[in-house]
Amino acid sequence: MIENRNVNIITDADGKKLVLINDIRFKGKRQIDWDDVKQYLEGYVGDYYEIEENAERIYIGSELPEEYTESESRKSLMGANAKAKANAATAIPELIQIASNPAFEENHKEKHNKNAKYGWYRYDVRFALPIYEENVLVRYNIFHARLLINHAENGRKYLYDILAIKKETSKP
């Protein structure tokens, strides 16, 4: 487990759980250093966390750092969504804990016959990142994403990636 993280689980006004990430480790207006993100994620390998809703254990395997930082879905991210994915890495335990609304899908790709022999699960998560102006917190941007979890040949479920990161539009 990675220590010294400033991450909390809160409940919003609608009663939905949300991970509040106050620890912005991956900064930069233009470019995220994905090698730093990969190195950070390696600190979770070997750990497991439970989904609060169903007590399901989700393991962190050695594939996560590479897939998280090098996948086609990550390479297509730009701007705020790229920064959101990079900083979501600091909240992996809490994101797994609040995961909800599971959807199952059979494995259809031969290359995943071992690591997703029993299929894939997608869970909804939400997280918030602070927005500062002149070193003063002015608001939080809230993002919705999907955890992609594979059910491997050994019977364990592993976090494979975080997909479909999208900023929620504000309510009037």
Descriptive notes:
- Strands 1, 2, 3, 4, 5, 6, 7 and 8 form an 8-stranded mixed beta sheet that branches.
- α1 runs antiparallel to α2 (64-70).
- 21% of the residues lie in helices and 37% in strands.
- It starts with 6 loop residues before the first strand and ends in a 5-residue tail after the last strand.
- The protein has 172 residues and is of the alpha+beta class.
- The chain has 5 helices and 8 strands, in the order ββαββααααββββ.
- It has helices spanning 34-41, 64-70, 72-75, 79-88, 92-98, and strands spanning 7-11, 17-21, 48-50, 57-59, 100-105, 120-133, 136-151, 157-167.
- The mean pLDDT is 88.
- 31% of the residues are buried.
How large a portion of the residues is in β-strands, by DSSP E?
35-45%
* Poorly predicted sequence stretches spanning 5 or more consecutive residues: none
Q: N-to-C terminal Cα separation, in Å?
A: 39 Å
- The residue fraction in helices comes out at 10-25%
Shape: globular
The total beta strand count reads: 8
Secondary-structure element string: EEHEEHHHHEEEE
Q: In this structure, how is the largest beta sheet organized?
A: 8 strands, mixed
How many distinct helices?
Answer: 5
- Secondary structure class reads alpha+beta
- Average per-residue pLDDT, rounded, comes to 88
- Radius of gyration equals 16 Å
Sequence-ordered SSE layout with sheet pairings:
Layout: E1 7-11, E2 17-21, H1 34-41, E3 48-50, E4 57-59, H2 64-70, H3 72-75, H4 79-88, H5 92-98, E5 100-105, E6 120-133, E7 136-151, E8 157-167
Parallel strand pairs: 2-6, 4-8
Antiparallel strand pairs: 1-2, 3-4, 5-6, 6-7, 7-8
Helix pairs in contact: 1-2
